[in-house]
Amino acid sequence: MPSSALFTLGTRGSPLALAQANETRRRLSDAHGWYLERIALKVIRTSGDAIQDRPLAEAGGKGLFTKEIDIALLAGEIDAAVHSAKDLPSLMARGVAIAGFLPREDVRDALISSFADTIEGLPEGASLGAASLRRQAQALRLRPDLKPELLRGNVETRLRKAESGAVGATLLAMAGLKRLGLVHRARAALDIEAFLPAPGQGAIALTARAGDA
Question: Which domain holds residue 47?
Answer without folding.
Answer: 7-105+200-209
